[in-house]
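Minutes, project check-in
Item: structure for the 153-residue chain
Input as provided by the requester:
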Amino acid sequence: MIDLDQTDRQILGALARDATESAGALGRRLGLSQPATWRRIKRLEEAGILAGRRLVLDREALGFGVTVFLGVKLATKGRVSLEDFERAVTAIPEVQTVQHVLGLYDYRLRVVARDLPDFERVLRRRIMTLPGVGQVEANVLLSEERRPGPLGI
């Protein structure tokens, strides 16, 4: 783990908002040269703090207006392996994230659909037929905002 100074935190915050910003533009805003900014970004990448950059798609603009979080509890009968469930669930294109969690449910899924009837189709035909699925609880996302994390980024 490396020590992060205020400039490192500013770089992380700026890249969290827009990962496409160039080192030159970022450096000008922060009062650094392009090479100094680039070296700091490289150091953050090498330390594993910057683990990658992602493109954020507007799901609604792509026609996926419904997001549902599912809690999935695997049935104890048959003792389906976690790997079998994970392999099957990750093959479903509407399933955006698969999280193995501790608590009431074994997995938390983020599922997108065009509308509620489309979600019902995905749930009935794809998710409920997965190996080992027992109990499922659905929570429809009403709104979402990004909040600063513990680093204030």
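Outcome recorded: The longest helix spans residues 34-46.
No further action items on this chain.
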